[in-house]
Amino acid sequence: MSAKEKIKHPFYSLTNNGMNEGTTTKLRNASRSDSNFVYAMLESSEAGISMPTSNERMKKYGPNEVQHDKAPSWLKQLFKAFINPFIFILLVIAIISFVVDVWLAAPGEADYKTIIMVAVMVIFSALLRFFQEFRSNQAADKLKSMVKTTATVLRKFMGKREIAMTELVPGDIVFLSAGDMVPADCRIMQSKDLFISESMLTGEALPVEKTFLPIRDADTKQPVELNNLCFMGTNVVSGTAMAIVVATGNRTYFGSISKTILGNRPETAFDIGINKVSYLLIRFMLVMVPVIFLVNGFLKGDWMQALLFAIAVAVGLTPEMLPMIVTANLAKGAMNMSKHKVIVKRLNAIQNIGAMDILCTDKTGTLTLDKIVLEKHLNVLGAEDDEVLKWAYLNSFHQTGLKNILDKAVLEHVELHDYLKVEEYFMKVDEIPFDFQRRRMSVILKMRNGNHLLICKGAVEEILDLCSHSFDPGEDKELHLENDKVIPMDKKMHNTVLQTSKKMNEEGLRVLLVAIREFDGKHPLTYSVQDENNLTLTGFIGFLDPAKPSAKPSIAALQGLGIGVKVLTGDNEIVTKKICNDVGIPVKNIVLGTELETMTQQELADRIDDVSIFAKLSPLQKVRVVKALREKGHTVGFMGDGINDAAALKEADVGISVDTAVDIAKESADIILLEKDLMVLRKGVIYGRRTFGNIIKYIKMTASSNFGNMFSMLGASAFLPFLPMLPVQLLTQNLLYDISQTAIPWDRMDEDFLKKPKKWDASSIQRFMFFIGPISSIFDFATFALMFFYFKANSPELQSFFQSGWFIEGLLSQTLIIHMIRTKKIPFIQSWAATPVVALTTLIMLVGIAIPFSPLAPMLKMQPLPLSYFPFLFGILTCYCLLTQFVKTWFIKKFNQWL
Q1: SS3 readout for 800-837
Q2: CB-based contacts of 362: which residues, under 8 Å, 6+ apart?
């Protein structure tokens, strides 16, 4: 099965956690078993494996590295820049033109104008795309983080040594300490105070406590929920451990995810949309060009001249500037976004971000600070109380063990240090360190009165079981150690504590209890676990990874742009719900990973629009949600930075990551933010919509103008005794018109256009073409009548006079249409184009008028026009603008859209 199919069928050969089934079984067996069995299972020992064994296993399992997509070589990127349906058409036209104008031409009459013109358009468009994407890929490569690439390993007969991470094999014994990246999927064999951050893997903000004890019910849990396993790519926050390697390379959790995202990306909304529009215009051209060729051939009898004219018409009908205009628009958008700390790796993502109507985002670090803070310190009655914070501060300050992330959050309250005189008034005499069975730790301090004070901090159930009393804060609801009375921990108080703890948990807080006990100063300094009883409860401390201050206004701004926000996280639903409420994401329904697993694709599709939070998701479940949203017609953006986000980033229409993300996430992303801020994303959305607006302007202008021209060409070919315009004149007019449109990327969009997501709609372009295109034909026929009947240019001898008149009228009407179509408002009164557009269109109109009077006229077989022609021209163009504005107003009322 191909990599692309694996993305489409994400559960193929993988368990629902995203891992290979064989690896999952192996990890569960290792987790469930005691150390002797684990060593036997992996054919290893406490002394590690020998060098010959390592070499054998390297041949069997391969190096410990993960497959990933690399940026293609510059040659491949250059080749891909030329793959475009319109470029193919232009190349076919160039070949036909070469055959007719050069190969079959009489000696000395070879004409290279068409070939050169077409070649310049093709090369300019392709090189512009190539340089922009090549530069962005280089910038993204520079962002690749420099990770530690060595591991400390124990080898039999060789002892401890540092080796390259890629040289690890199953059965190797590795040593971990604070700051290390876990080098493979491992079973912990010995540990002390070990905390590992798995946020990049699971989305859980808090580091996870790890232990070496066997977990007998391992078969009922997902591997990532087993706390005696640690996984490749996660980081050791504190503590030390000795572990045995169970899986390496692509067999690891990280590797399993990486494998699913290799290969081609699924087609995005941009790819699908531009292809539909391209084929609409190509079909139109394939119908019209043969008709014009046949009409001219039969009526005029000169089939070679008819063929040359048909080629010129084909060039005129081909929106050959489409690749260039699209690329120039996207490249300009990318340059604008780079000024706002956004790197665009794939140009098409700019339009996709403008079309995005659903943003799926991870929680940790995107909506939150990715930093644990002490949010609440409450007494037993649930009221804020600084006295509780004092006890917690004294406990965290005086402990000598490795301070975990919660202790660091308590110690952020540095203002208490001098106020409490923590070192002068309290001298540490002993400590009972933290362990995983007790889930608490105590310090014993000597106070100024000579007595010893034991301060114990830990998990709610464990501390509560040890408390015989609690402080009654009294009516003022504030704790005063000397004044407040101590009351027994009766059933009522016990329930009150549990209720308060539950309430805090529901607010997304991680809750610890703080309790104390006073001992006589003569107590021997051999404090132990047995002394942690008959404690007096002081209160609660609650920790949270809080919402970013910028998240709420950013979410409101995105919602104001018509973008719905859904949270897809590996974290639990309680914390996620609290953060969503804080940042203004409406919490409608919540679906957990376990529930999603039982849903059919149809059930998911039926419910997905009404769900705002998907929690406890595995990486491939995130892919499934993104895929289901896309299948319902949404253009989906996905924002994430962890290993667990990589597959979803690739499945989305636009994958958004940050510069601090893991490498695999940055490789999967289309856009990389240099600031993890959703407000930057809002700017990206506006640039995307502006870019799309300018692209659609060009397409609608070109399609309607070409459609009108074909009516005019057919009519003129049928009734005139000569060609209405020579091929060289048609190509010149087409080139000038194309040049006038090159300023479109610098144009602005009306504010109301930017308020809603914009998508490709081929039927809208077709409708626009049929209603707006023929307007120009009315005034072309008026010009034909003027030249034929008024100026008497009605014979082949006077055809250059006729052709000069239509050349100017045709070019000016096409150029004016730019201003008529670019806005739904009244041009020049309610809405002005950007200065470059006004300047360039004015210049092209002046050049067009000047050509019949210039030295180029004989070469183009034109002649000067009398001054009496120009008042008529002014009247025709004025009527053309007025009628177009009238039809535009009707069209907007009828179809409720313009661009």
Answers
A1: HHHHHHHHHHHHHHHHHHHHHHCCCCCECCCECCCHHH
A2: 203, 567, 568, 569, 639, 640, 641, 642, 645
More confident residue, 715 or 804: 804
Distance in angstroms (rounded) separating the CA atoms of residues 430 and 565: 51
CB of 488 closer than 8 Å to CB of 537: no
d(CA 112, CA 105): 11
In percent, the amount of the chain with pLDDT more than 70 equals 89
- Residues 193-206 have pLDDT tens digits of 788 878 767 766 67
In the structure encoding, which two tokens stand for residue 265, read together? 């990306």
Q: Cα(517)–Cα(533) distance, rounded to whole angstroms?
A: 8
The answer to whether 284 and 86 have CB atoms below 8 angstroms apart is no
pLDDT range class, residue 417, cuts 50, 70, 90? low
What angle (nearest 5°) sits at the alpha carbon of residue 395, between those of residues 390 and 398? 115
- For residues 261 and 425, is the Cβ–Cβ distance under 8 A? no
Query: What is the mean predicted confidence (pLDDT) over 800-827?
Result: 88
Contact 747, 697 (CB under 8 A): yes
| Contact (Cβ atoms closer than 8 angstroms) between residue 599 and residue 628 | no
How many CA atoms within 13 Å lie on the side-chain side of 44?
A: 28
pTM of the model: 0.72
State the DSSP code for 609. G
Helix (H) or strand (E) holding 378: strand 373-379
**Does position 145 have pLDDT exceeding 60, yes or no?**
no
Tokens coding 551: 């998240």
Mean pLDDT, the chain, whole residue set: 82
Q: Which of 185, 362, 531, 738 is catalytic?
A: 362
Cα end-to-end span (Å), the chain:
42
DSSP secondary structure of 494-540: HHHHHHHHHHHHHTT-EEEEEEEEEE-TTS-S---GGGS-SEEEEEE
**39 near 649, Cβ under 8 Å?**
no
545 counts as catalytic? no
Task: Compute the distance between CA of residue 327 and CA of residue 401 in angstroms, rounded to an integer.
Answer: 58
pLDDT (tens digit, 9 = 90+) per residue, 51-102?
999 999 999 988 888 765 566 777 887 888 787 776 777 777 778 778 777 8
| Cα–Cα distance, 454 to 517 (Å, whole number) | 5
Nearest to 231 by CA among 619, 643, 615: 643
Q: Exposed e or buried b for every residue in 178-192, given b needs 16+ CB within 10 A?
A: eebebbbbbbbbebe
Residues forming beta bridges with residue 540, ordered by sequence position: 378, 513
Following CA atoms 798, 804, 809, 810 in sequence, which dihedral angle do they give, to the nearest 10 degrees?
100
CB 312 within 8 A of CB 288: no
Nearest C-alpha neighbor of 343 from the set 141, 597, 512, 71: 141
